[in-house]
Amino acid sequence: MKKIILICSIILTVGLFSCKENDDADLETYLIATPIKADLFQFKEEAIAITDPTPIYESGKIYAYKNYIFVNDINRGLHVVDNADPTNPKTISFIKLEGNYDISIKDDRLYADSYGDLVILDISDITNIKKAKRIENAIYQEFWCTVGFDVEWPQADYFDYSNFDSNTEAIVGWEVNNERLSTAEFEERFGYNELALENAAETSNDSFSNTGQGGSLARFKIVGDFLYAVEWSSISVIDISNLDAPKILEDVYTNGVVETIFNQGNMLFVGGTQGMYIYDITAPDKPNFVSEFVHGRACDPVVVDGTNAFITLRSSNTCGETESGLYVVDVADISTPVLTKFYPLNEPYGLGIKDENLFICDGAAGLKVYDKTNVEDLQLVNNFENIVTFDVIPLTNSLLMIGDKTLYQYEYLENDISLLSTLNLN
């Protein structure tokens, strides 16, 4: 049974005292927001559509497949880019897919998450994309927070979900009313107390093969006939041997919160907020835990090249307080990962490897290119500054990088890379 993710609990209460009137000390005026609801099935059906190109709102991850690049617009869908000519890429359509963060593609079947469901699209004809199937709660189940991406959160003292059923309904808007209540009436109706508020706050990867390639920040990974998806504290295992009729298998629960997934052969390397976790998928339907490398709390994508794992750690209010930087970890003995070297960085996100080059997206510090011939003494070859960088995909002939609403492509040179093209997605 899929776990329930309480992704909206921190929004339950947003300050509880306002507009106290001097003539009635026992009553307070509260702004109470109640959901405007719609049928959940119809809501999810309308969450998918193929439209003309549209400006991007918030660029997310990138994915390469054949001559196409898919750019995630966080929680909204996918921008489809024709990259037959890397010097002149063109946006050709937008796949509206609400609640989407990740995709993976095999044999012209695009697998994507949408509000925790698994959506399968037939992209054999890129000009006529068709929905093949939707499997509810295949990745996770969202609890009372299926909210349309274009629904704005109103200013309110309390969000009242008492008459909302997340199993059959979706939220498409809000109705906000003033209500006069005593403290006792408010607590009886909404169960407010200081402890409840504290608890709520705490809940708070070759492009021309039959399988596409995502970046290091990907949560989806296809290996053979299996799709693996990491979410919160588990790995969802999905048998896609029948591309149009996937089988949802038993989840594998992890030792901590996990965010990214990468494979080298029959090994999965899962990045989490507290470490890197290694799983053996020799038996692909049952990933078997092998070992872990624990670090301080931070956001953590990982890529592996032979006997070296490269892990970027980013500290922030949401990620943790560990120093931002690059960990190089020796995984020659897969059962005992050992730290080789730590390199400080500014704000690292995704990373990638091509031959002896290591590419690191260092946030506002730009794209950094290192020679990793000697992992104990990485040499900075180039730094493309004055751009905000998020994730990279090293392809056979070029490097893809997504920044702030811009897709960059670079060509490999003998000892460096140079800019090939840019595509502004605004």
Distinctive features:
426 residues; mainly beta; Methylamine Dehydrogenase, Chain H; 7-stranded antiparallel beta sheet; 34 strands; disordered N terminus
Write a structural description.
It is a single chain. With 426 residues, the protein is mainly beta. The protein has 2 domains: 4-36 and 144-202, no CATH class; 205-424, Methylamine Dehydrogenase, Chain H, CATH 2.130.10. It contains 3 helices and 34 strands. The protein has helices at residues 40-46, 183-190, 194-202; strands spanning 4-5, 27-39, 48-51, 59-65, 68-73, 77-82, 90-97, 103-106, 109-114, 117-122, 130-135, 141-142, 158-159, 169-182, 213-214, 220-223, 226-239, 247-248, 252-264, 267-272, 275-280, 288-294, 302-305, 308-313, 325-330, 338-344, 351-354, 357-361, 367-371, 379-384, 389-394, 398-403, 406-412, 417-424. Strands 16, 17, 18, 19, 20, 21 and 22 form a 7-stranded antiparallel beta sheet that branches. Strands 3-7-6-5-4-15 form a 6-stranded antiparallel beta sheet. Strand 32 (398-403) and strand 33 (406-412) form a beta hairpin. It is globular and about 70 Å long. The model is unreliable at 3-23 and 192-208 (pLDDT under 50).
